[in-house]
Amino acid sequence: MKVLVIGGRGVIGSAVVELLSAQHQVLVGGRSSGDVQVDMTDPVSIEAMYQAHPDLDAVVVTAGHVPFKPLSQLTETDWQDGLNHKLLGQVRLVQSGARHLKAGAVFVLTSGLLEREHISGGSCASLVNAGLAAFVRSAAQELWGQARVNLVSPGPVAGDERGAAAFAGFMSISSEQIARSYLRALSQPLSGKVLEVFAEVTR
Ligand SMILES: NC(=O)c1ccc[n+]([C@@H]2O[C@H](COP(=O)([O-])OP(=O)(O)OC[C@H]3O[C@@H](n4cnc5c(N)ncnc54)[C@H](OP(=O)(O)O)[C@@H]3O)[C@@H](O)[C@H]2O)c1
Fold it and tell me: Nearest to residue 154, comparing CAs of 138, 134, 131, 170?
């Protein structure tokens, strides 16, 4: 398969690119990094990217920003930013991709465990991740027979210090283990699935 990994130079994306490259032709996408430049916040950029690459078999998204702030400090701009970037950015990539790519295309999106577990400062991320899960289930139904859409929901990545304080007490998981869920979402005949990959032991 010819697979574009948007965010393929990031912490999770790098491991996904390495794993998928053993079996597939992989292109790396990003705003400025990689082989294919695309900005998931910009519908015009997304349309241009699909027009330039109509032969993609799959698009994996391992990108998406959300603000982490206490609820009392989240501004209107913060909410708009999180919704526009991580939620609508991935929605746009599926909606536009379904129009441009050939039948059988596969989309694999990224959410995170804050859909199910909650931390201080994570309310925007929880909203966005839950929205992505609902979107994937609904889009998979509408795109049945035309395209597959799945979602990987990772826990905090081992060694990524950026979120370590906010996720104090949570078990982290290696990016290599997380990458296997993307391979599974791509390779197995699944659609509308949320593949959770986190090491919670308290449930
Ligand atoms: N790290 C974690 O512990 C963790 C845990 C659970 C879930 N997640 C989720 O997993 C996803 C990836 O996280 P990460 O930590 O691996 O990311 P990261 O290391 O911060 O890398 C982000 C990647 O996305 C690309 N990117 C950023 N903005 C973009 C845009 N507007 N359009 C296209 N590409 C863009 C960047 O490349 P350019 O700079 O070239 O654009 C970069 O390659 C995020 O949605 C995050 O919420 C992360």
Answer: 170
